[in-house]
Amino acid sequence: MMLHNENAGGFWDAKTEKASYEKIPDKETPLWDTYSQIIYYWAQGETDSDQAYIVVYNGGVFKRYKNATYGYLSFRTVKPFIKSD
Prior knowledge:
four-stranded mixed β-sheet, globular
C-alpha cells in the first residue's frame, strides 16, 4: 500500500485481524488503477469456508462473503514473496 509514491508502512496483526499503517494509504498506482471503479480487492486469506478478506484502497481489511458480486470488488494475482539474501 502506498501514499504519495512511498510505502505506507503496513502491518497485519493476525491475532486481532487488523491492519495498521505508519501513513494511511490511498488509491495509487501500481497496485490500484486510479481510473477504475474498483476500490476493493480480495485478499489471499480466507476467514472460513464462507468468507474471505478484502482490502480497501485506504488500507482497511474486512471480511466479506465469497459469493459477493459487487461491481467495485475485484482481485489481483500476486506472486509469493521470496526473501533473497
